Amino acid sequence: MTYSVAVAGASGYVGGELIRLILNHPDLELRTVTAHSNAGQKLSSVHPQFAHLGHDLVETTPSKLNGHDVVFLALPHTQSAAIAGELDAVGLVLDCGADFRLESTKRWEEFYQTKHAGAWNYGLPELTLADGGKQRGRLASVQAIAVPGCNVTAVTLSLAPLITADLIETDDIVANLTVGTSGAGKSSKVELSSSEMSENLKAYAVGGVHRHVPEIMQNLEKAGAVDPKITFTPVLAPVSRGILAVTSAKIKASPEKLTEALQDAYHDESFIDLLTDSLPETASVTGSNRVQISHSFDPSGRITVICAIDNLVKGTAGAAIQSMNIALGLVEQTGLNQTGIRP
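Request: output the structure for the sequence above.
Response:
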């Protein structure tokens, strides 16, 4: 079966990455691409690599999206909820924004200052859960999926198995992330001028105010943490894409048990590579849905977990395709076999 697909917000970074992956998927047919300010232009005007498609960007409206088998919403945060409520003739909707990620109304209103639209099924298949299962088991045959935040994915995959096995303290987690500029989005309020970012690193959203903090907390709680506390600091780097997360926590058991917990959780995961003889690098996962993870211990009694992902693939668009495959009953790896593009 071939599934008809629409991408709303196709002119952005995530929209472009979704299109690239959709074209590589044997069971998907891209029929509609929408935009806001770029509506009426050729898709190639914002993504020249797709000139061969001949698609026009149309206005983002329910009428343009209804009637498709799959709709990907790659819209700015807080803009998906309104249009999603009018998609009554779509088989599966995947939101790549934040609108449906948080289950807590209080947390949503604190960090986004808008009305909470509710929570959808969460699209991080590898997330270990306190009940012993994984989030993958909650995605089969669903009709709506909230795709995780990119920083959230890196931190969650670093720590969740250790929390589920009750092997680390969760009241003093420290996560420092180096993030490519595309992680802030094309319309970001963060200053990303070439003159300022050239040969420069720039911290932003420090002091617990980053919007991914409540989502990280939610995932750690799903993994089994009670009242977790985290210091989360993102740093923009002068690279276009990629996240390198360095996360640490106090250990409660022997290093051997922590190593075993990570191996047990991820040894059969198609997209997660546990490194033992080298450290993760963003260049090694660029363009792919892969995750590289390594860990080490130090005399202070802490574990340090290093995780590298491509923020546009495993961090967003790839996670959306992976979750879509599960929901539609397809082989989970379909369309995601790219080995990456080392710059």
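The chain has nine helices and 14 strands.
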